[in-house]
Prior knowledge:
Layout: H1 4-13, H2 19-23, H3 35-60, E1 73-76, E2 95-100, E3 103-108, E4 119-120, E5 125-126, E6 133-134, E7 140-142, E8 151-157, E9 160-169
Antiparallel strand pairs: 1-9, 2-3, 3-8, 4-5, 5-6, 6-7, 8-9
This protein binds FE2/S2 (inorganic) cluster.
Amino acid sequence: MPSPWNASCSARIGGPMSETQKTGRSRLDPEPVSRRDVLGLMSLWAAGSALLFGLVGMLRLPKAAVLSSPSKRFRVTLPATLAAGEAFTPPGRNVAVYRDEQGVYAISRVCTHLGCIVKPTEEGFECPCHGSRYDHDGTVTKGPAPRALPWLEVKEQAGTLYVDEGSNVASGTRLKV
Ligand code: FES
């Protein structure tokens, strides 16, 4: 029950205490944002961003992620000046193609150790990775390569030579041209 003294004071000042007087703030001041509200807004923003990124990722799914590999069978045009026993490497292929008196043949340049690309040398082939050596027909002369370089199938169709990297033939097999 209010005391008579307080009641008379209120009456003199102008009535009960207003809201502004209670909080000490004007109605035009923005209300302070609590830490809980800030964290809530941040988590909402993070969830929205994750949703957006997920949606963008899903829209990209139909695109092929892997490019098709080139065909293992390819056409070869040997230079007219290619000397007997001289290696010709078709552009973009890891194959050495040769022409000699007995015909045309192709040897893979992929090292049988761990797959590095061997370099043709005067002695045969040399691997730059772990030092394996091969002679002219691909036989291993120095390890660690465990096997000889494979010979690849060479065919002729309508006057055009084709080499098939996916098809091995016996060492020494030549195509007579
Ligand atoms: S990959 Fe050729 S020697 Fe190791």
